[in-house]
């Protein structure tokens, strides 16, 4: 019993720690003005134009850290601070989202695969726990197995997300350096912001894998009994 309690505590604490680290790192470097003096929107526009992506729009989104790239509408959406302010954090985040736009333009395989998985994951993630709960409480191993399979689709999605995010960050740093938007002294700071963001994806994947393994152990135990 103690082991299960510790397990669930870890499942809660580790993701919260990753989110806390991201927010703390972002907050720190969002207060440091970039030497270029360019807002996140300007940084995104410069990198997009440098790569011939004149059709991709840069728009403002709502909410803190709501930054994302939408491949359907070809838009880079930046949260209010990143869009309007000239900070090291905003510069790094804007370049990262443009990194996704460059992936899209270059037909990056992992990005394409992830996009194709989205409709399936939306269905499986909602349905998986229904079958898992039914399987556990009614001792129906077939239902539990179906729930595990549906949950495994989401785990695969998490794994595919990792190279997409790391590659976008690598592209971001390359673009920031090659365009001269950041100086040598800012490279470390920009990397810290991107690494903190990447850690949240790593943790999410690790937690998903642990939960999948736990359910597989439950399934095996139910079959034996």
TrEMBL record:
<keyword id="KW-1133">Transmembrane helix</keyword>
<feature type="transmembrane region" description="Helical">
    <location>
        <begin position="6"/>
        <end position="22"/>
    </location>
</feature>
<feature type="transmembrane region" description="Helical">
    <location>
        <begin position="193"/>
        <end position="219"/>
    </location>
</feature>
<keyword id="KW-0378">Hydrolase</keyword>
<keyword id="KW-0472">Membrane</keyword>
<dbReference type="Pfam" id="PF04298">
    <property type="entry name" value="Zn_peptidase_2"/>
</dbReference>
<protein>
    <submittedName>
        <fullName>Zn-dependent protease</fullName>
    </submittedName>
</protein>
<keyword id="KW-0645">Protease</keyword>
<feature type="transmembrane region" description="Helical">
    <location>
        <begin position="117"/>
        <end position="137"/>
    </location>
</feature>
<keyword id="KW-0812">Transmembrane</keyword>
<dbReference type="GO" id="GO:0006508">
    <property type="term" value="P:proteolysis"/>
</dbReference>
<feature type="transmembrane region" description="Helical">
    <location>
        <begin position="143"/>
        <end position="164"/>
    </location>
</feature>
<dbReference type="GO" id="GO:0008233">
    <property type="term" value="F:peptidase activity"/>
</dbReference>
<dbReference type="InterPro" id="IPR007395">
    <property type="entry name" value="Zn_peptidase_2"/>
</dbReference>
């Amino acid at each position: 019993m103690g082991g299960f309690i510790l397990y669930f505590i870890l499942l809660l604490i580790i993701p919260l720690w990753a989110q806390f680290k991201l927010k703390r790192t972002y907050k720190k470097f969002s207060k440091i003005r970039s030497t270029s003096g360019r807002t996140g929107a300007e940084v995104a526009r410069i990198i997009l134009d440098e790569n011939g992506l004149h059709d991709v729009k840069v728009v403002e989104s709502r909410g803190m850290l709501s930054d994302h790239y939408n491949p359907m509408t070809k838009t880079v959406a930046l949260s209010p601070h990143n869009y309007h302010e000239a900070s090291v954090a905003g510069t790094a985040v804007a370049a990262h989202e443009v990194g996704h736009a460059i992936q899209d333009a270059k037909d990056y395989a992992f990005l394409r695969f992830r996009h194709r998985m989205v409709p399936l994951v939306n269905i499986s993630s909602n349905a998986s726990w229904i079958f898992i709960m039914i399987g556990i409480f009614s001792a129906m191993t077939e239902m539990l197995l179906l729930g595990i399979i549906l949950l495994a689709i989401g785990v695969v999605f998490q794994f595919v997300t990792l190279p997409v995010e790391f590659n976008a960050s690598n592209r971001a740093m390359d673009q920031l350096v090659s365009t001269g938007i950041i100086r040598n002294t800012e490279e470390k700071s920009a990397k810290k912001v991107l690494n903190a963001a990447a850690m949240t994806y790593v943790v999410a994947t690790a937690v998903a894998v642990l939960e999948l393994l736990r359910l597989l152990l439950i399934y095996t135990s139910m079959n034996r009994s």
